[in-house]
Structures are given as C-alpha cells and as structure tokens.
Amino acid sequence: MTPTYDFDGGLEWWRHAAIYQVLPSSFQDSNGDGIGDLPGILSRLDHIAALGVTAIWLSPIYPSPMRDGGYDISDFIGVDPSFGTLQDFDRLLAALHARGIKLILDFVPNHSSDRHPWFIESRASRGSQKRDWYVWADPRPDGAPPNNWLSRFGGSAWEFDAGTHQYYYHAFLKEQPDLNWRNPALREAMAEVLRFWMRRGVDGFRVDASGVLIEDALLRDDPPNPTASERTPPPERQKRVFTDSRPEAIACLAGLRAVTEDFPDRLLAGEADTTTDRAARFYGTPDRPCLQLPLNFGLLDTPWNARSVAAAMDQYLNMVPSHGWPCWALGGHDKIRVAERVGSAQARVAVMLHMTLPGTVFFYAGDEIGMHQMPVPPERIRDPFEKLVPGYGLGRDPERTPMRWCPEPKAGFTTGEPWLPIGPEVGALNVATQAEDPRSMLALYRHLIALRREQPALRGARLEPLRGEDEVVAFRRESEGGAVLVALNLGGSRQSFAFAGESRVLLSTRLDRVDERSSGRMELRPDEGVVLGLD
Fold first, then answer.
1. Kind and range of the H or E element at 159?
2. Nearest to 34 by CA among 362, 399, 418
3. Are the CB atoms for 380 and 420 separated by under 8 Å?
4. pLDDT tens for residues 111-125?
5. Strand order in 360-364's β-sheet?
6. What is the C-alpha to C-alpha distance for residues 276 and 333, in angstroms, rounded to an integer?
C-alpha cells in the first residue's frame, strides 16, 4: 500500500497561512537612530502585502534593557521607546487588519528582565509578596549553587543574591530571571498579559521557550551528555533531562491555550522541542489542547540531500498527532539563513518544498530576497551568545543584520548608522532590484504564496510521497479540487523523474517553464524544482 499522510483540516485562518517573521530592530528605521521601529514597519506594508502573507509575527517590542535582543522584558504590556509608542502599535495593527493581514506577537513567559518591577519586589526580601513569582533556592552547605544546571549562555544557571542569601534560577542570562510557573498568581498575571493584547486586537502569539517553563521540582542534577566532546559548546555538555520539556510545562501551555480560547480565532504557536520523541506532546490532547502550531525547523536542521530530506519529512509527518496540524519554519532570528545553509541555487528549491508541503509555513524577513549570513566584525557584536560562549559559531547577529530595500550603501534601512552592519552584495540582494526582475527570488516567493492560495490541492491536508531517483524528492498533493505533483532536484546535475499521466508545469523555481506539458517523465535541470498540474 502506498504511504500517505492525511490530516483533519478545518476552517481556521492559520491552517494554510504563510506567516512572515519581522525582527523590528532590523526591518525599517523611520527616525535615523539606526534601529528599526513600528513606524518603519508601517511604511513597508506595501511590500508585506505584495508578498501575499496571511500574517506577520513580530519579535518582542516591549520595554527592555536589550541585553538579549528584547527578550529580557521589563514591562509585558508596553512598547519600548526605541520601537515607538503603544499608539504606533495600534496604528500598525489597524493598518494590517485593513489589508486583511493578521498580527502575531512574541510572548515571552519563561522569564523577565531583572529590572522588571516584579523581580525588584521579589528580590527585596524573602518575605516579599512576589518572592515566589521567581525560582529561588538555598545554597548547598558549602555555599555552592543548588545543583549543576547550566545557563544556555554559559556557566551556572544560578545567580547568588547577597541581600537574601539565596540563588535565583536563570535558564538564559543572569539578567533574565526565570518566572515561577508553579505560582497561581504568576500564572494569572501572565494570562492577563495575553488578555491585554488580545483586547487590543492581536490575532495570536508565538510563545518563546515554551518547553522550559518549569523545571524539576526536586532540583535534580542534569546528567552529562554522552555525545559531548571538546567541540561541543559548554552549555550543551549536559542532557537537559530535568530542565527541558517537563510534563508540567505542557500543562502550563494548556492553561495559556485556555486563555486564548476565550477570544475567537486566536493562534497559539510556540518554540518547542520538535525532536521526534517530544514534539507531539506540545499539541496537547483533544480534551486538553496546547499549541496549535509547535514550530518545526526540521527542514533547516536536516542535511540537504534527497534521502535525508525525505526521511525528515516522513518522521515529522508521522509524528504529528491525528488532532494536530503540520507546521514548517524555514528561517528565524536565531537560525542560520536558508541561503547560507544550502546555497543560493538550492534555496529556491528549499522554498518550493517549504511552500508545497501540507500545513502552515513560517519564513523570516530577508529570506524572500535570498539574504545570507552577513559578517559582523568583533567590535560590533551585539549577541550575548557570541560574547559569552565565543568560538563555537553560536552568535546570531549574522542572521539579524538589517533588511535591504534598495541598492544604496545603507540599503534604504536607515539614514543613520545601522545597529548591525548592512553587509556586502546590497546591489543584488534588495527588494527594489528584485521587484523589477520577474525571475528573482522575491518573484519566486510571491508566486509560491499565490499558488498555495489558488491551488485546491495545496490547500488540502493530504500528501502522498513518491519514490524519487538520485537527488529527486517528489510527492503528490491532492484534494477534491484536483491534484499536483511536486518534483525537486536537490542536486547540481540534470535529473529525470517518471510519473503516471499527463501534466503541465504550474511553476518552476527558475520561473521560465509555465504551461510546458509533459507525459510520463519530467526532466529537471540542476537545482530546479517544479510544481506540475495533473490532468
């Protein structure tokens, strides 16, 4: 029997959405300070609308000391002055909705800034009313930290507070103390944060670090990572058995989902552990749902060859529970850019694969023009990962460099000094130049997003994998409205692909074979993918 993957569909807006991640600081600066802002995003809505996306996801815009790119939040219901005002946010939201585009906010429930009023009160004394809003523990008898847990940014995950003679836990920077999700008052306070933004009209949330909301109550030591070596970054030299993806964290996500269910048509996506043995739990159960869309970066994290990609697709689609919905992310603010990962030619093949799979897709601003990792000299590094754990390639600045809008030295991003360098090759990798080129990467993104919207087979929930030869990955998508065949050449030499029936080319990654007809066999050029309409 031919294997197929089939999922229960629905009418929710997010099921077939193309969602565009915007890092506000790197998108468009409106006032010359070198930092992107909300009015800047508002000024670029024509580009966002021309892409055809369903929604944008904004990385954090909240007040923050900016020790970790805005993920250290000092007020969960405000806007940092570097990005604008709450009124600017309302104007952006209204303008997006007027164009039929939804807005998703980053929600950061795991921790706050150490400058948040909650933490200031918590550390004031052991008797503080908010003491238990954060994770505190006594030292060991010798004064050492409570256990061996490691911060993602290196060193112990515990910081000693001399004023109260206890340690507080921080999964990330010491300036990002973890909130205590075992505390009912804290959970209600964070629920009210969600309600605040939904009342303003926000359409959903991407939950940051959703798998680490709660750690082991017994504070047991994490075991060593048996595969670690000297080349392994120090924070990864333990297996995070007692600090990641605990069952209690899944229960917290179910509570957040219950809050969003009080508002119609809201989405809860999330950063999750999507390894094959843990991803399913982030969906929850039919009786107690959690995330609608646990973000899956499997395509980007897989070796780029036909066998590995086909296997990654199979593993993931077999993992998604019957009540779940697939989700594919091909880029993000802390992931190597796809063009850097697979090369510029194969990036076009990768995006065709991405956009023709069943489910919801997320992509990152700049990928639609084929941006690579941009070099950042040591004196301009901003990311604490590279500062605190240098030499392991963990720095995320290269994928966070500013968007390129036109072929000028500052790429139309700012009139001032950009917060990160623009990087080379602005002349070709920019929106204005590619908008004039009918075969550009930008044109391919626009065509693929339109094809997803227009083709009933690509809106369906069914995929039938086909056996490819050599470096070809192929599959069939179908619905009551028709069928298409997707064939992708992941290699640099010409390949052929056999199939049953008659077809015509709906789209080629080279954007030059529309309506070409074939019977029984398709010739694929090097680094080419095609979507075929089946008669």
1. strand 158-161
2. 418
3. yes
4. 999 999 999 999 999
5. 293-294, 267-270, 204-207, 102-107, 55-58, 18-22, 360-364, 327-329
6. 23
- List residues bridging with 477 in a β-sheet: 463, 484
Count of Cβ atoms closer than 10 Å to residue 464 Cβ: 16
Q: Is 511 helix (H, G, I), strand (E, B) or coil?
A: coil
The helix-helix angle for 247-260 and 184-200 (nearest 10°) equals 40
The Cα 364–Cα 333 span in angstroms is 7
In single-letter form, the type of residue at position 21 comes to: Q
Which ranges of 262-383 does DSSP label H, i.e. alpha helix? Answer: 298-301, 306-319, 338-342, 344-356
Residue 342's CB: how many other CB atoms inside 10 A? 20
Pairing of strands 293-294, 327-329: unpaired
Query: What are the tens digits of pLDDT across the range 175-234?
Result: 999 999 999 999 999 999 999 999 999 999 999 999 899 999 999 999 999 999 999 999
What string of DSSP letters covers 351-399? Answer: HHHHHHSSSEEEEETTGGGT--PPP--GGG---HHHHHSTTSS---GGG
Q: Whole-model pTM?
A: 0.97
Rounded-to-integer distance, Cα 329 and Cα 296, Å:
6
Q: Alpha helices of 377-520 — where are they, by DSSP H?
A: 384-388, 431-435, 441-454, 456-459
Instruction: Give the Å distances, CA to CA, from 75 to 36, 113, 116, 320.
Output: 20, 9, 6, 35
Report DSSP state, residue 221.
P
Which are the catalytic amino acids? 208, 271
Residue 48 phi, psi dihedral angles, 5° rounding: -60, -45
